[in-house]
Amino acid sequence: MKKSQIRKIVLKKRDLFNINNKKINLQNLLKLLNHKSENKKIGLYFPIGSEVCTIDLIENLRKKKYIISLPIIDQNFDMSFYEWAKNNPLNINKFGIPEPLRSKKIIPSTLIIPLLAFDINLNRLGYGGGFYDRFINKLEKKKKILKIGLALSCQKINKVPTDKFDKKMNYIFTESKVYK
Questions:
Q1: How far is the C-alpha of 78 from the C-alpha of 73, rounded, in Å?
Q2: Which string of b and e fits 138-160 if b means at least 16 CB within 10 Å?
Q3: What's the CA gap between 180 and 177, in Å, rounded?
Q4: Rounded to two decimals, what is the model's pTM?
Q5: Per-residue CA distances from 131 to 13, 79, 93, 109, 136 (Å)
Q6: Measured between alpha carbons, how far is 39 from 155 in angstroms, rounded to an integer?
Q7: What residues form DSSP beta bridges with 146?
């Protein structure tokens, strides 16, 4: 099956998933970050649609003095992360994604990434823009980065079609299991 077909099918499944189950186990994720995170700089995403909600996670990390950053997509379709605090305004970009103001640029040591589909080999299928794959590729040339995908169990498929540009996750957290 083609990536575009998988995206449509899994997005429908995710949209129909019980709204009460769209949370991951925060305690397990926080424990992992305390042990594995190189520093307190975390790149996250602001949830849209039926994505796993990151609002509680952001609040918990902020209380633990993590520096929270969200991505901005520029005119060249490159992605960068900028610091964001809860009360700071967000702008909606042309893809419908909330972005922070371009204040303080952050180079995260950990990325918490949305996805549309995944497999047990930690392959991730995103929305098709390749933003995260390009950003990770560029960043990994300079330093090691912890890559954590967030998904719902209904987004797991047998095999994600991949190419040489696709980046695997180190972990994928769902509401019921941690894949590593």
A1: 6
A2: ebeeeeebbbbbbbbebbbbeeb
A3: 10
A4: 0.94
A5: 23, 6, 14, 17, 9
A6: 30
A7: 110
pLDDT digits (tens, 9 = 90+) for 90-113: 999 998 999 999 999 999 999 999
Q: Name the amino acid, one letter, at 121.
A: N
* Fold exhibited by the domain 3-179: Rossmann fold (3.40.50)
Task: List C-alpha distances in Å: 83 to 53, 71, 92, 131, 135.
Answer: 19, 9, 16, 18, 16
Element (H, E) at 91: strand 90-92
pLDDT for 5-21, tens place per residue?
Answer: 999 999 999 998 865 55
Domain ranges of the chain: 3-179
Tell me the residue type at 12.
Answer: K
pLDDT for residue 142 is more than 90: yes
Q: List, in order, residues 6 or more apart from 76 with CB less than 8 Å away.
A: none
Residue 136, number of CB atoms within 10 A of its CB? 20
